[in-house]
User: What shape does this take?
Amino acid sequence: MFVRNLVATMLLGFACVLGSAAASAADTDAPASGATESAAPLPVSAFASRSLVGSPRLSPDGQYLSVRTDSPSGDMHALAIYRLSDMKVVSLLRLPIYEVPVNTVWVSPGWLVVELGKEFGSLDQPMATGEVISSSIDGKRQHYLYGYKPVSRRAAAGQEDEGFGSIVGLPAKADGSFYLGEQPWGHENRSLVYKVNAEHDTRDLVTDMNVANMNFLIDPEGKATFAFGDNSDFEYVAYRHVDGQWKPLDAQQVGQRFAPFDYAPDGQNIYAWWSKDGGPLALIQENQNGADRKILAQDGFANIGDLQWTAPPRQPFAAITESGIPRPIFIDANLPAAQLYQALAKNFPGEFVDFINFSEDGNKLLFFVSSDRDPGAWYLFDAKTHNANKLLAVEQWIKPADMAERRPIRFKAGDGVELDGFLTIPPHRDLANLPMVLVPHGGPHGVKDDWFYDDDAQFLASRGYLVLQVNYRGSGGRGPGFEHSGYLKWGTRIQQDLIDGVKWAIDQHYADASRICVYGGSFGGYSALMSVIRAPHLFKCAIGYAGIYDLKMMYEKGDIRSSQFGRSYLSTVIGKDDAELDANSPDKLADRIDVPVFLAHGKDDQRAPFAQAEAMRDALDAAHKTCEWMAVPHEGHGFYTEADRADFLTRMQAFLGKYIGPGAPLQH
Assistant: This one.
């Protein structure tokens, strides 16, 4: 049974990796094997390697740390529990192959609740499977609380108890319980919430409503007061629970987006994200009946994003902007947590400090420090000793001083819309007439490029190439209107935004117009092929990595179509008209491609099935175009293993050198 497979099991190899990760806390700046301290670029392996730790959370009593851990091969994942007093792993909850902990919460000092997901490649954002489990800190007691497998206690007793589950809330004080959201199979237009005791696997119904896919806000008394989200038709809706019924919120309160996410310490006011007319999301506070609305933080260009929270009783003291170099907008700079934040930030100049969570007594704080050149590290602050100690590093072999600057940019597209993005500038080179690689991000919707460390951009910059990334229409970070403006425009306006960015870089004399290539993964792979079709002669080559090349095929193959509202999503963002889909599919337009192409794809890709790459390759062959090919068995949506990633990066570097020449030489 699944729960038995999940019981803490320390395989020797995995345990050794975790021991190394813990030991590295004392010296996280040591370079990896093969790294040098000279001006020579880091070896490919430095960029092909991936961190083996992530997503740590501090226990309520401040004694332990839960950490996602990955095997070196990348296909095995686990949840490790570190004892903070000596950074030793005290238990390891090892998951089946490809399964990952996508969300972990401590519900008491001795119990955790975990949402599970699956990840089939390095480009994959883990896709939640709807399975929710609980485990004691030592892994000896576990419950399969909800999911699609008929192994829960209720399902085993013959009750209908299968579907998609998620953690929708926690009590103000950790008492061993949490709020479980359910989307039961066979009742797609239904959303439920239960209060669940994680240790004893008991539950009490909180609410039941006849709308699918809802998120909920739970008040301090344990009542569900708001529901919101994209329904089964992929339409955004919001409701309030009034007089025992769920009633749609009026248009004035909702605007284009209203998403309440927490109660203020007074238990009466709520915090919410809000967009009046589709513009950037603002942080607001208002009474739960919609009165006394107050804007706490907003930015005219981009969303207000991550919040910085105080210790319990929690309240946000700062909000972070989502464009350019992130900066805090202080809501109350006089709060002790805000003053601590400012003091810590002064100790990390040029870096961004992010509070993760406090212990319940406020004496311990887990925080993260990172930048455009630094993948980051987690620290523990002790309020009694006023010391901050480094616990774990993301990529300990990376030396920030050797990495490239990521410079925010803004420019106007051809139709006058202002766009933002980033230039990653090769170290020790002048920003003038450099060979350039355009790197469109994946998604495309709701995803964005940001200022923080980027492996692909840093690898290319280390080889002497300027890297351009553009947050084209459809990207996240600028409100629902900007995201929706990319719907049905995958092959047209989105590509033109990218092309306009390249022309801007040429006009600024940053890029050498005769030495420009385009490379992307997932949707970025689609853009790599579509952009050279839409802008003949602008690029000298194109690289598609785990890309989508036939839009119509998305309705026939791949995991998007099979998700809970995947077909509604596809019809909304790419449409259903076969002629339009073909007119915006690179494999149907291969005869228009005038540059050499490099295609790389994993044969086990679930998101962009291998058939996508085969269709593109066959179309290029039929059109007698130059195509280099890399098909890798046992790899998914992006390559897991360091060896396969290193092979891909090596081949990409050779491909770039062949068609746009070597990177710019160092300036002495």
